[in-house]
């Protein structure tokens, strides 16, 4: 070396003259050799100036030369570099090796560039030393062929970073990969500003000779080509040209139209028009025919010559079915009559027995559990999403909890930043102003310093946060752009400049970091790191919002995310997290800054707000019930005169009836609590409302039938009430039993909330029926005795003097009988009614398929909730979707090449591997909703374990892992630098080094350590004997509303199924929101099934309990079906989406609709009037008033109060839907159904008419009916 240096000094003058006269260095000349002084870059050295011929490499460095620059491994290996330079080259290329070697041709070309620069014996042909410092070369010019540079760039431009879903050039180019090209990439790598190059290398690009220098233009390999050493071409993921045609998403299904109009609108409009023409034609034809023949509207059924006249004693022509129906109904009548008589004769025994049974059932409430966990409410344990969630939680731990802030500013200004070293001006929005960032940092640091208390112990963020590099680095993960500045005020203010100019400050650092968030050293004069203090990158799309494209400087919002630990079966640790979240919420509610507008959310926020909402709605519900209670108590009585006000009122009976309703609810809750079935808020809030609607109607019918009835001669009170109960109890049984079965069949739903509601509601309705025909009948008998004895209501001990009062009908009954029923059934009104209701039905059918599916999460929050602001900002500013994990279930053999190739995405991997298929899906993210390449632990492991890398080393004394930062001679590479050692590890080798990879923290010498990115991604068998389940993570594209989330779930599952088929192993997609949105994949089917089964149940029960009158059952079922279809029309008009809550209400509306229809149809079926119109009028007059007062008016007042609720979900799904249920039920039951019966009602059951005649023989009723029949015949 001394001789070399001496020759250098002696020949300097000659060499200088040589350059002046010849302008070039002759072949086989060097421009440097060996290393001299220390560079200004810490840990780096300058090369020594040397212009002599290449020198032979020392034999102990041959292996290193073969590893780095095999092209020079020939002859006596005379080179322009020594062993020290080769070692420096190896160290300098560690990061590119780890990032680019997954594409062999790319890395080969890059090594060619640096080997020619460092060691080429022909250096002087394409290199020129331009600056010196003593013996040190401090700057050189490197003439590089444009063809070579472009070919190298083209081979490397698509290489991916599996752990970050970024392109490798984002780190190696000093700017975002999309802004990188061949020129600025090489310039960045050669610039001493990057913190890695020991001195400045000035690349000059040309394909022709320049100033006597011939540019280096060695042979390159395209990424689609294999190398001579047998390495294959790059994978499709790392080389677009290696892929087939870009996948093309299928064209969206065009809307179904007819003549440019929505097909459903057109079809239903046309159908309705045809119906109107036919219907109007038939009505007009019938009217003209009657006028011509001067006949009455219908052929008389009851006349003196009819075998079924009122005076007939022979049930001739009664069919077998009619006879069977009459006998069944008579059996029910006899049973209920005897039971009613018994209840009135033994009231105390019946009431006491009911109290004992209700108390015993209600005691179960002490075991009551209320479920508020959204997962338990909306996802069945047997559902696919729930099972996949459980599998994920079991193998990888539960998904972390998220605390997040979205910060904007009311300041509407823009600062134009002009880079000192040239370039276009860059606008910065106000949220990125320095003073605003300092205020945000103050807030962030204050949050980091929060101290909560749990069970007497202090809890800080440090105790509960995710720290991926712990225990080596215990800093919490905080996804905030302030981590670009190490969460430090001083770093944020760091700038370089003089008194005239600022060369670099936080603007330039920010612009660099958003393009290379994983960088440890920016390219500005600041040389500050971008990597977060927790050891990971902060991707700008996670920490910024409101920007366009990738212009992050235009961001209008900052997003700060604190991922927190989550625990499945450790309530003590989870309580600590909950305590800190509670403290955070309290702090944020009290935080104020005029320059910042902040919305925030924690994992517990939604559940907290739902609970608060439920508590705040208690007052609304109570007021609603009180109004209904008061109405029931006051309206049950039929006041004959003011003097008898307190005698004829039925306040105490009404209150008792209400308590019976509540007792049935508490009994149902208690019985299921005994069984360990948890309650839900839907059960608590809806079932009392439902049972009140169903139960009160029956109470009104029983009481009003008694009030209208005349006691027969020699008939006692218990016999009268027994007879009344025998007449009306079958109708009550019909409605109650139908409703009970409807709700129990609703329990077939897979949704826990719907199933639980259906079970509780079905049992409550059935218990209510039993209590009404027993306890309430006894109470009615006691109240009737009180009234007959002229005792005051409530104060039974006070008795008024005897006074005769003429019994009159109630106002509502008189109105229905004298005014309403005759009007509705007028000859000209009936066609109008049919036309209007069929029109409503047609419209509703047309829009059924347009009802939106899903639940806007904003609706679940109270009007005044802080979470609403967060939801609004989330949809406005967020620029990325939720993470999605493709989970490979246990059983795949990763130790075999076949297993590896089926999953990985690098060289040699299958074209239809898991990683490749997810990558292909990300190319059409607008269709698939998969936004990015998957992070692949397997590919990173292969790069980490390569023998050329310094990542995988172990102590040859103990076999323990040796981190890349450790300087120790006993640390040796994991695998030998042999052809077999360069291959992927298989068999025992694979499992031997994998645990080391998963425990290795990334560092400046090895960025591929898997601890931070993959510690939870691989589930190892005990004692590290094999690989169990693993996952590969990607992200969904931006998801803003329910249709987006539903589509994302569908597409991810489709992709996972394709992967499973491709690799012949089970793979499923998992994201944290899937358990909530899975229900919507089948909600339409579930709704159709639930409502279809309910209608079938109503049909069967009605058929049986109406005495096998099939046509009556058909009419009831059709009417209820119309109500349900019209409910969908209302949902579309009123913006109510289809989800579990609305499905519960639809099932409930099916049950309540029975009340509106069944009583009137049964009254019609047993009427003995002469024609359908009169039978319909009688049924409407007698039952319509009870239905109207019992359900419609009772519910109307209570429903209106719900509109005042602060809860949006109450306003939308309860107020709007309940109102629609009552209005549609009332209009169909009290308007359309009587008209339908007048046209198409079943003919009279001849056996029932005969039986009715027999029962009325010798009674006042026979005289009245006979008189009416005779007078009709005379007329």
UniProtKB/TrEMBL annotation:
<keyword id="KW-1015">Disulfide bond</keyword>
<comment type="similarity">
    <text>Belongs to the patched family.</text>
</comment>
<dbReference type="Pfam" id="PF16414">
    <property type="entry name" value="NPC1_N"/>
</dbReference>
<dbReference type="GO" id="GO:0008203">
    <property type="term" value="P:cholesterol metabolic process"/>
</dbReference>
<dbReference type="InterPro" id="IPR053958">
    <property type="entry name" value="HMGCR/SNAP/NPC1-like_SSD"/>
</dbReference>
<dbReference type="GO" id="GO:0042632">
    <property type="term" value="P:cholesterol homeostasis"/>
</dbReference>
<feature type="transmembrane region" description="Helical">
    <location>
        <begin position="681"/>
        <end position="703"/>
    </location>
</feature>
<dbReference type="GO" id="GO:0005319">
    <property type="term" value="F:lipid transporter activity"/>
</dbReference>
<feature type="transmembrane region" description="Helical">
    <location>
        <begin position="1113"/>
        <end position="1134"/>
    </location>
</feature>
<dbReference type="InterPro" id="IPR000731">
    <property type="entry name" value="SSD"/>
</dbReference>
<feature type="transmembrane region" description="Helical">
    <location>
        <begin position="1179"/>
        <end position="1205"/>
    </location>
</feature>
<feature type="transmembrane region" description="Helical">
    <location>
        <begin position="618"/>
        <end position="639"/>
    </location>
</feature>
<keyword id="KW-0443">Lipid metabolism</keyword>
<keyword id="KW-0325">Glycoprotein</keyword>
<dbReference type="InterPro" id="IPR004765">
    <property type="entry name" value="NPC1-like"/>
</dbReference>
<feature type="transmembrane region" description="Helical">
    <location>
        <begin position="263"/>
        <end position="289"/>
    </location>
</feature>
<feature type="transmembrane region" description="Helical">
    <location>
        <begin position="651"/>
        <end position="675"/>
    </location>
</feature>
<dbReference type="InterPro" id="IPR032190">
    <property type="entry name" value="NPC1_N"/>
</dbReference>
<dbReference type="GO" id="GO:0012505">
    <property type="term" value="C:endomembrane system"/>
</dbReference>
<keyword id="KW-0753">Steroid metabolism</keyword>
<dbReference type="Pfam" id="PF22314">
    <property type="entry name" value="NPC1_MLD"/>
</dbReference>
<feature type="domain" description="SSD">
    <location>
        <begin position="617"/>
        <end position="782"/>
    </location>
</feature>
<dbReference type="GO" id="GO:0015485">
    <property type="term" value="F:cholesterol binding"/>
</dbReference>
<dbReference type="Pfam" id="PF12349">
    <property type="entry name" value="Sterol-sensing"/>
</dbReference>
<keyword id="KW-0472">Membrane</keyword>
<dbReference type="GO" id="GO:0005886">
    <property type="term" value="C:plasma membrane"/>
</dbReference>
<keyword id="KW-1133">Transmembrane helix</keyword>
<feature type="signal peptide">
    <location>
        <begin position="1"/>
        <end position="27"/>
    </location>
</feature>
<keyword id="KW-1207">Sterol metabolism</keyword>
<feature type="transmembrane region" description="Helical">
    <location>
        <begin position="759"/>
        <end position="782"/>
    </location>
</feature>
<protein>
    <submittedName>
        <fullName>NPC intracellular cholesterol transporter 1</fullName>
    </submittedName>
</protein>
<keyword id="KW-0812">Transmembrane</keyword>
<feature type="transmembrane region" description="Helical">
    <location>
        <begin position="1088"/>
        <end position="1106"/>
    </location>
</feature>
<keyword id="KW-0445">Lipid transport</keyword>
<keyword id="KW-0732">Signal</keyword>
<feature type="transmembrane region" description="Helical">
    <location>
        <begin position="724"/>
        <end position="747"/>
    </location>
</feature>
<dbReference type="GO" id="GO:0030299">
    <property type="term" value="P:intestinal cholesterol absorption"/>
</dbReference>
<feature type="transmembrane region" description="Helical">
    <location>
        <begin position="1217"/>
        <end position="1240"/>
    </location>
</feature>
<feature type="transmembrane region" description="Helical">
    <location>
        <begin position="1140"/>
        <end position="1158"/>
    </location>
</feature>
<feature type="transmembrane region" description="Helical">
    <location>
        <begin position="350"/>
        <end position="370"/>
    </location>
</feature>
<dbReference type="InterPro" id="IPR053956">
    <property type="entry name" value="NPC1_MLD"/>
</dbReference>
<dbReference type="GO" id="GO:0030301">
    <property type="term" value="P:cholesterol transport"/>
</dbReference>
């Amino acid at each position: 070396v001394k001789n070399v240096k001496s020759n250098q000094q002696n020949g300097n003058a000659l060499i200088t003259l040589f350059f002046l006269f010849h302008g070039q260095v002759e072949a086989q000349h060097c421009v440097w050799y060996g290393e001299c002084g220390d560079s200004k870059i810490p840990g780096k050295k300058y090369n020594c100036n040397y212009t002599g011929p290449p020198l032979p490499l020392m034999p102990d460095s041959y292996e290193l030369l073969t590893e780095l620059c095999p092209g020079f491994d020939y002859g006596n290996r005379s080179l322009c570099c020594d062993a020290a330079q080769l070692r420096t080259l190896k160290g300098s290329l560690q990061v590119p090796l780890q990032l680019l070697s997954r594409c062999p041709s790319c890395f080969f070309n890059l090594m060619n560039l640096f080997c020619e620069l460092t060691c080429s014996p022909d250096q002087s042909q394409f290199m020129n030393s331009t600056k010196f410092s003593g013996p040190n070369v401090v700057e050189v010019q490197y003439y590089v062929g444009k063809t070579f540079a472009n070919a190298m760039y083209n081979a490397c431009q698509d290489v991916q970073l599996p752990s970050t879903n970024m392109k490798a050039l984002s780190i190696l180019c000093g700017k975002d990969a999309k802004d990188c090209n061949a020129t600025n990439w090489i310039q960045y790598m050669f610039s001493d500003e990057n913190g890695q190059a020991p001195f400045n290398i000035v690349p000059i690009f040309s394909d022709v000779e320049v100033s006597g220098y011939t540019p280096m233009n060695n042979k390159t390999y395209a990424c689609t080509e294999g190398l001579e050493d047998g390495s294959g071409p790059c994978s499709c993921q790392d080389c677009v040209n290696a892929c087939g045609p870009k996948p093309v998403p299928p064209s969206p299904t065009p809307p179904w139209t007819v003549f440019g109009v929505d097909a459903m609108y057109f079809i239903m409009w046309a159908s309705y028009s045809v119906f109107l023409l036919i219907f109007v034609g038939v009505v007009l034809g019938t009217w003209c025919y009657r006028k011509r023949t001067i006949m009455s509207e219908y052929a008389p059924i009851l006349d003196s010559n009819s075998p079924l006249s009122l005076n007939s004693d022979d049930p001739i022509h009664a069919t077998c079915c009619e006879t069977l129906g009459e006998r069944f109904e008579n059996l029910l009548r006899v049973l209920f009559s005897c039971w009613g008589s018994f209840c009135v004769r033994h009231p105390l025994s019946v009431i006491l027995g009911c109290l004992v049974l209700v108390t015993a059932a209600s005691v179960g409430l002490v075991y009551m559990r209320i479920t508020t966990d959204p997962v338990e409410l909306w996802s069945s344990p047997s559902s696919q999403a729930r099972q996949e969630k459980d599998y994920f939680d079991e193998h990888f731990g539960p998904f972390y909890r998220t605390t997040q802030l979205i910060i904007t500013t009311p300041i509407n200004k823009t600062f134009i930043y002009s880079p000192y070293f040239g370039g276009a001006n860059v606008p910065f929005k106000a949220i990125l102003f320095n003073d605003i960032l300092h205020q945000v940092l103050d807030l962030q640091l204050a949050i980091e310093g929060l101290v909560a208390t749990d069970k007497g112990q202090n809890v800080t963020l440090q105790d509960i946060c995710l720290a991926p590099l712990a225990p080596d680095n215990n800093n919490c993960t905080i996804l905030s752009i302030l981590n670009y500045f190490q969460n430090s005020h001083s770093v944020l203010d760091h700038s370089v400049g003089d008194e005239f100019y600022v060369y670099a400050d936080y603007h330039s650092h920010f612009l660099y970091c958003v393009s290379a968030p994983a960088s440890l050293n920016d390219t500005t004069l600041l040389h500050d790191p971008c990597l977060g203090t927790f050891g990971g990158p902060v991707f700008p799309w996670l920490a910024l919002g409101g920007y366009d494209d990738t212009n992050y400087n235009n961001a209008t919002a900052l997003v700060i995310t604190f991922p927190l630990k989550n625990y499945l079966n450790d309530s003590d640790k989870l309580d600590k997290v909950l305590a800190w979240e509670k403290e955070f919420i309290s702090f944020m509610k009290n935080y104020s800054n005029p320059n910042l507008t902040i919305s925030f959310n924690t994992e517990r926020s939604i559940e907290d707000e739902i609970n608060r909402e439920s508590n705040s709605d208690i007052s609304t519900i109570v007021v609603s019930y009180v109004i209904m209670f008061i109405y029931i108590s006051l309206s049950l009585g039929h006041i004959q005169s003011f003097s008898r006000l307190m005698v004829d009122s039925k306040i105490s009976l009404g209150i008792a009836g209400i308590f019976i309703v509540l007792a049935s609810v508490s009994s149902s809750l208690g019985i299921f609590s005994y069984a360990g079935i948890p309650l839900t808020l839907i059960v608590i809030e809806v079932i009392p409302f439902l049972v009140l609607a169903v139960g009160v109607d029956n109470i009104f019918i029983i009481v009003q039938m008694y009030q209208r009835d005349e006691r027969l001669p020699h008939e006692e009170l218990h016999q009268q009430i027994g007879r009344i109960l025998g007449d009306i109890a079958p109708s009550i049984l019909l409605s109650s039993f139908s409703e009970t079965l409807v709700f129990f069949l609703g329990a077939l739903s897979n949704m826990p909330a719907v199933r639980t509601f259906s079970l509780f509601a079905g049992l409550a309705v059935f218990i209510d029926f039993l209590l009404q025909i027993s306890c309430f009948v006894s109470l009615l008998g006691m109240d009737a005795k009180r009234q007959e004895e002229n005792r005051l209501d409530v104060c039974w001990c006070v008795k008024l003097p005897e006074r005769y009062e003429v019994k009159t009908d109630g106002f509502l009954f008189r109105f229905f009988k004298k005014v309403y029923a005759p009007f509705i059934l007028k000859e000209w009104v009936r066609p109008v009614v049919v036309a209007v209701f069929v029109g409503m039905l047609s419209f509703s059918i047309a829009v059924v398929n347009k009802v939106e599916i899903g639940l806007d999460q904003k609706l679940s929050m109270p009007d005044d909730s802080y979470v609403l602001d967060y939801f609004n900002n989330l949809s406005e500013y967020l620029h990325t979707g939720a993470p999605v994990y493709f989970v490979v279930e246990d059983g795949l053999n990763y130790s075999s090449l076949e297993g590896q190739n089926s999953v990985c995405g690098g060289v040699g991997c299958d074209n239809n591997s898991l990683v490749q298929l997810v990558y292909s899906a990300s190319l059409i993210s607008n269709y698939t909703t998969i936004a990015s390449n998957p992070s692949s632990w397997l590919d990173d492991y292969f790069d980490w374990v390569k023998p050329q890398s310094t990542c995988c080393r172990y102590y040859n004394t103990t076999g323990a892992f040796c981190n890349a930062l450790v300087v120790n001679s006993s640390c040796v590479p994991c695998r030998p630098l042999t052809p077999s050692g360069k291959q992927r590890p298989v068999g025992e080798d694979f499992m031997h080094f994998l645990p080391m990879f998963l425990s290795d923290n990334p560092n400046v010498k090895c960025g591929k350590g898997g601890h931070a990115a993959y510690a939870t991604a691989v589930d190892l068998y005990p004692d590290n004997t094999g690989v169990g389940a693993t996952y590969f993570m990607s992200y969904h594209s931006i998801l803003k509303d329910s249709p987006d989330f539903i589509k994302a779930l569908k597409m991810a599952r489709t992709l996972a199924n394709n992967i499973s088929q491709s690799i012949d192993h089970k793979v499923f997609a998992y994201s944290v929101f899937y358990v909530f949105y899975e229900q919507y994949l089948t909600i339409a089917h579930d709704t159709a099934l639930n409502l279809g089964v309910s209608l079938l149940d109503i049909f069967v029960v009605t058929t049986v309990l109406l005495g096998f009158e099939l046509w009556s059952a058909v009419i009831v079922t059709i009417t209820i079906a119309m109500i349900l279809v019209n409910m969908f029309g209302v949902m579309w008009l009123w913006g109510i989406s289809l989800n579990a809550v609305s499905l519960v209400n639809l099932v409930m509306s099916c049950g309540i609709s029975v009340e509106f229809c069944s009583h009137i149809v049964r009254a019609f079926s047993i009427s003995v009037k002469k024609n359908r119109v009169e039978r319909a009028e009688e049924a409407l007059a007698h039952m319509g008033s009870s239905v109207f007062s019992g359900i419609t008016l009772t519910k109307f007042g209570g429903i209106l109060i719900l509109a005042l609720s602060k809860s949006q979900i109450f306003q939308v799904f309860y107020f709007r839907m309940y109102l629609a249920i009552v209005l549609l039920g009332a209009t169909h039951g009290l308007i359309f159904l009587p008209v339908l019966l007048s046209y198409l009602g079943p003919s009279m059951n001849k056996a029932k008419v005969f039986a009715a005649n027999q029962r009325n023989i010798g009674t006042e009723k026979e005289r009245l009916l006979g008189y009416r029949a005779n007078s009709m015949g005379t007329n």
